[in-house]
Design a protein that fits this description.
It comes from Teichococcus vastitatis. Keywords: Transferase. The protein contains six helices and twelve strands. With 232 residues, it is α+β, with helices and mostly antiparallel strands. The chain has a four-stranded mixed β-sheet, covered by helices on one side. It has a four-stranded antiparallel β-sheet with strand order 6-11-10-7. Strands 2-3 form a two-stranded antiparallel sheet. The structure holds coenzyme A. The site of coenzyme A has 18 residues, from strand 4, strand 6 and helix 6.
Length: 232
């Protein structure tokens, strides 16, 4: 299936933390500056891999060399393409060693990937989750399952906030998402009311990580690819 046939195309990649010279050459000046600010070589490598893959994939879809793509930020800080390529929406998430990129010409989108921590930092639940979410999480007695639910809620919420473009500038406690990891589609709410036309979709499982995609509207076809260096 060609990438252009998808309403929403999602690409999952894994970095080994060792950037190739080709990867580095694809980064924008700003990305190179940011890459050089990482504390460790491996974190720098993961950042470079995610951003180089983003350039490769967007430029392949648009049919333009990576060096010709120009980015800016929407008012809430969401990275966007500048005209004439602004019609292609995208969102990137990375949690070492994974990165996830969603692209769509038809829908506003947000993605999140989070490697499962052995234990979710306790205070984060009260800082980030709504009352309804905390109640759902407290109902789960098994620590392992509770940890999975915490990550599930978090990635759903973050995918939504990133889709809306606010990121954590919107108070995450104001938004409630479903905690059930088995749900294929769920509908976030704010004080019991739907948040526009947003829906949250599960993605194919990623070993050791939680993932979510938020889409505004009703996508007809979502295609997911696992990318390798050669295919992106
Ligand atoms: C955007 C944000 C949700 C990222 O969360 P995260 O789990 O650390 O990181 P993810 O890997 O899932 O997403 C990061 C990517 O989202 C994208 N992004 C950045 N701001 C975004 C926004 N407002 N909306 C959607 N996507 C955004 C970028 O591509 C970013 O990648 P980059 O940093 O490598 O360029 C969070 O950092 C945020 O809201 N920042 C803005 C508010 C802020 O700085 N608050 C202080 C910290 S609480």
């Amino acid at each position: 299936m060609r990438r252009r046939d998808a309403d929403v195309a999602v690409f999952l990649g894994r970095s080994d933390g060792i950037p190739t010279p080709g990867d580095v050459s694809r980064l924008t000046q700003n990305e190179r500056r940011r890459a050089d600010g990482f504390r460790t070589a491996i974190l720098r490598g993961h950042f470079i891999a995610a951003h180089a893959a983003r350039q490769r994939i967007l430029s392949a879809i648009l049919g333009h060399p990576p060096g010709e793509l120009r980015f800016s930020e929407a008012p809430g800080g969401k990275p966007v393409l500048r005209p004439p390529h602004h019609w292609l929406r995208f969102n990137l998430s990375h949690s070492a060693p994974w990165f996830l990129l969603a692209c769509s010409a038809r829908h506003e989108i947000g993605v999140d990937i989070e490697v499962l921590a052995k234990q979710w930092p306790g205070p984060l639940a009260s800082a980030a989750f709504s009352g309804a979410e905390r109640q759902a999480l407290e109902r789960e007695a098994d620590p392992g399952r509770q940890n999975l639910l915490l990550h599930t809620v978090w990635v759903r919420k973050e995918a939504l906030l990133k889709g809306c473009g606010t990121g954590l500038r919107m108070d995450p406690r104001d938004v409630t998402v479903d905690a059930d990891p088995s749900l294929g589609i769920s509908y976030p709410n704010r004080a019991g009311r739907p948040i526009g036309a947003w829906r949250i979709l599960g993605l194919p499982p990623v070993p050791g990580a939680a993932v979510a995609l938020a889409v505004a509207g009703v996508p007809r076809r979502i295609c997911c690819w696992r990318i390798t260096e050669a295919s992106a």
